[in-house]
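Final paragraph of the annual report: two paired records, presented back to back.
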Amino acid sequence: MSHKVLIIDDEKDICYLISEILKDENFVSDFSTNSADALNKFEIFKPDLVILDVWLGNSELDGLELLKEFKKNSPQIPIIIISGHGTVDMAVNAIKNGAYDFLEKPFNSEKILILSKRALEAAKLIDENKYLKKIVDPKIPITGNSQFIINLKKNLSKISDTNSRILILGPKGSGKKFIAQNIHKNSNKSNSIANIIDLKNLSESELNTMFVEDKFNIDQNIFIKSNNNTLILYNIDFLPINFQKKILNYLENDQYFKNFGINLDVKIIAIISNNIEQEIKKGNFIQNLYNRLNVINIKVPSIDERREDILPICEFYLNYYNKNKKYKFSFSKKSADKLETYAWPGNVRQIINYIEKTLILNQDLNQKSDYELTNLPLDMGENEEKNESSIDLTLSLKDARFNFEKQYFLSQIKRFNGNITKISEFTGMERTALYRKFKSLNITINNINR
């Protein structure tokens, strides 16, 4: 596959030289000698890589200003800066403003090729990490005793075997993404990479990259990137209408990708958290797209509607986290009753987070290996909003992190009776790092056994 490179230098000879060097390695290039033409070609040519001279004579914008313009509109684009004698400081400044690296004149062809390939590879990795998250084969089984879980387990193989589109609906935190992972795990595409894309809060530029349709960049389209794989469209109900229309076109027009010489084979799973009927009535979601996606429908109830799943989930994750941490626990009758009667507004996700957090913050682990959880840290049932998290969500991230870390380390100090060696082993931190952490959290260490 060829990559497009835009070369910007006020010396035409330099542009020609770089172009010829890259041409031998299957790069397609265009060039500009001033900022105005560069901005225009950047929009039209849509390069994968920019090679930019930091000093542009007789130009409205210099290289650094041009870099900022490119990054403002396309933050993902890799840019290599060319610097001459006396402009290295400017090149270093350019890197601080988002450039990938810089070449100092005079340069040789090997350096240009190596740096260009590295820049493109780095951009590819960033792009894949941002949009495409490889789903690790979920070792955790679908757990519960409700009729919903029983039916889901019974029909999982049939649902997974089909290549029909699947729509999963349900409230936030109810386990929709986890179910999608299990469908992929049991499908005929389980040996390939499943791509899960969170479509919420993506910028117009990011979505344009994901749903690109011009013939020069069509291989970057998310559907083509997911060919022969599973594509999980998470939070598709947050996707703007113009991009919904693109997906609808792909689903309605079998010839669309064939026109580019591509036979598309993608298992599509769409996930929706909002009330989709209301979103359609409001004009926020296209009815025809809903119909196309809604071939196999899985409605995931809230945990409040399947309360018989609460304790099995709690016990599974209690054992799961205990196994990793080599401690043995059980719930007391009182604790089990509290767990089963609590509202759990955050659904399954809140239960899992709560169990893990309970184990982290639980005290007296050093006293015995079998420990019955008789009193859970939260006063469940008193104040649901407060119980969802013991951290004040009105705080800044910095202050919230400070409070959590202080609570966490105070718990470890009490748990291990101030034994710094045991705290170090449990947390995986060096002793000196622990002392620095205690100091930063204003934790006095007078009573710690060194």
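The closing record of the year follows.
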Amino acid sequence: MPNPHSLTIVVVAKNEERNIAECIASASFADEVLVLDSRSTDATARLAREAGARVVETDWPGYGPQVARGFSMATSEWVLSLDADERISPELREEIRQAIRSGAHDGYRLPRLSEFCGKFIRHSGWRPDYTLRLGRRAKAGFTDHFLHAHMTVDGSVADLKASIVHFSYPNMHDVLEKLDRYSSGHARDMLAAGKRGSVFKAVLHGLMAFLRTYVIRLGFLDGQHGLMLAIYNAEYTYYKYIKLMFLQSPAQRPEFPG
């Protein structure tokens, strides 16, 4: 019979050689670290194996289905979803152990502390950024949206206090690459949901995104990085509506990055 307190940490990755070793090191307290590598062309798979992870090289069905696939391959009673650019802090590691031992709930939301171009953001809507990541494998699932895929747990859920550390946007190259990729994916999700885009909506929602980030969610308290993030959110929102507008017309439908 499996250990009722055992834990598998599932990491989905592609071309993450700069992150994967440190990610696995932070997860090494788990009974199993399972890396699903989506045909990386760099050293991700090799470095993950050298760091002690079980590596499965596979196709890319989408973020949500990939994590769900990892959950189905896990050998432990509990599963935790971790991205390659995330780290489990020592404080969170102890909280996770205690939560699993207690068995009081079926799932747990974890706060995140995220970096933007060299600074950890503590306002701007990025903190505490609770996200459901830990659950009993038998009760855990994952949605299949491109951008906003998330874990689900069929049972009671509670919050932990210590944070996942998220190195989400370490430099401007990553900011611009993710701006393009994420806005494309979100536009496809919006199209599937029956939403409509236009230049007017793009400008209006972009302006609202800036005000929401910088004013309502106190982004100005994050200094110049808060202003940069507010502008990023405005651009991201603008482009997802513009891309949605083009996707609505098959004759004008461009190939957006995935």
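The mean pLDDT is 94. This concludes the annual technical report; the extension proposal builds directly on these records.
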